[in-house]
Amino acid sequence: MESFSLILAIVVVTALAFDFTNGFHDTANAMATTISTGALKPKVAVAMSAVLNLVGAFLSVEVANTISKGLVDEAGIRPEVIFAALVGAILWNLLTWLVGLPSSSSHALMGGLIGATVASAGFGAVHGDVLVTKVLIPAIAAPLVAGLAAMFATRLTYRLGKKADGKAAAKGYRAGQIASAGLVSLAHGTNDAQKTMGIITLALVTGGTLAPDSDPPLWVILSAGLAIAMGTYLGGWRIIRTMGKGLTDLQPQQGFAAQTSAATVILASSHLGFSLSTTHSVSGSVMGAGLGRKGGVVRWSTATRMFVAWGLTLPAAALVAALAEWICGFGDWGTALVAVFLIASSAAIWKVSRREVVDHTNVNDHDVPDAEPSGVVTQAMAAVTPPPAGTVADEISVTIPAPESADPATPSARTTV
Fold first, then answer.
1. Alpha carbons 147 and 133: distance in angstroms, whole number
2. Dihedrals φ, ψ of 201, to 5°?
3. Which segment of 216-225, 284-293, 365-374 scores lowest on mean pLDDT?
4. Hey, how many other C-beta atoms are within 10 angstroms of the C-beta on 394?
5. Quick one: pLDDT at residue 368?
């Protein structure tokens, strides 16, 4: 085995930096609904999510093996290719975080890896069958399955709780929401932390430090788990605001249904080795829960911008990674230039974000820009919904203006029914 080279060390550090951005970018997946409904205080929510992300990182290595052994040909790439892939993924994560859009960190990583590999070794080095069956098909299926499950779960929840005491039911659903949010966090660690494990393992194999087809070493699992947990604790407050308030207005029953549905989909995909986007799953379940409540509303303007970001993630990250790989091909100075560009771009994005600070103190206080008014669908449904049971007619007062008098001196009469 070769020694741990400088470029390999740079790749490992960059991979952990990506894992860190993945943590704060995807905190919203687990805790946005819990925070927006008031089930947990913001700082408590992200701390709980961070711990469970770390625990989840140790539960499986199936997704890591999909990335390190299945997506690309290990023999056709170098550590510089992995570095270029991470550059594309990190920059896309930061840009979408800046504008508060919940895009997929998983697909950013996949796109970066594919773009850099194609630039280095050609299209033949990408295993198209793995890309289609374990990345693209789950990307389409996950939000649909999670959304339908959450919609039906929400309707069932409201039907079963129709006769329950309002305050007691809300308290129970908040407790259930906390438990389901913990399950999503555990699932997120199981799925997303493994992606970084897979990337680091792939870099170690291509650098000659690990034998081909090796599983991630323990130190890789631990460092990836800690990096995503630290990022999660900082909280991606901008995306939490969009996920919790921008897509729909959730009640505790809906939050519980959404998170339980998403966790089920994510854990099942992790067990099967699918590199699933937790963002797609949770976003789909939140929209499904919004549609599942009578009079609920989904803000489709926000959802449309999110869908566009999803579609751009793979090609955008691939394009940046391919360009970075081309520059790295000029030698050490090219790799250094890409590293400087990554650091400078990340610092610039952070500086721009300081113009409007979003944190745990105001994450629920700000309406999402360009969102539809929350009451559009609700008011329309209310206009055709019969009065609640127990409302008597004599409690309803309707004022009907009488015809104006022909005599200007006589004031108009008003009749009340």
1. 21
2. -60, -40
3. 365-374
4. 7
5. 45
Angle (deg, nearest 10), helices 105-121 and 79-98: 140
Q: 256: which 2 tokens?
A: 């519980």
Q: What is the pLDDT of residues 31-51, one digit of tens each?
A: 777 887 777 888 888 888 888
Whole-Å CA distances, 392 to 126, 382, 388: 69, 18, 10
Q: Rounded to an integer, what distance in angstroms lies between the CA atom of residue 97 and that of residue 123? A: 30
Question: What does the mean pLDDT of the chain come to?
Answer: 78
Residue type, 376: V
- SS3 of the chain: helix, strand, coil, percent, to 5: 70, 0, 25
CB 18 within 8 A of CB 224: no
Structure tokens at 292: 């599942």
Alpha helices in 132-251 (DSSP H): 137-160, 166-206, 218-234, 237-241
- Listed residue (300, 250, 297, 305) closest to 103, CA to CA: 305
Closest CA to 107 of 50, 26, 228, 227: 26
Task: Give the H or E element holding residue 287.
Answer: helix 278-292
**Given a cut of 70, is residue 213 above it in pLDDT?**
yes
Question: Would you tell me the crossing angle of helices 6-36 and 278-292 to the nearest 10 degrees?
Answer: 10
Judged by DSSP in three states, 407 sits in coil
Q: Which residues pair with 72 in a beta bridge?
A: 126
- Name 13's Cβ contacts closer than 8 Å, sequence gap at least 6: none
Here the tokens at position 75 are: 């023999």
Question: Over the stretch 346-390, which tens digit does the pLDDT of each residue have?
Answer: 999 999 988 888 877 777 765 544 444 444 433 433 444 444 444
| Residues paired with residue 415 on neighbouring β-strands, in sequence order | 400
Q: Are 261 and 286 in contact (CB under 8 A)?
A: no
Q: What length is written for the chain?
A: 417
Domain locations along the chain: 6-368
Show Cβ contacts of residue 394 under 8 Å, excluding neighbours closer than 6 positions.
none
Owner of token pair 């409201």: 158
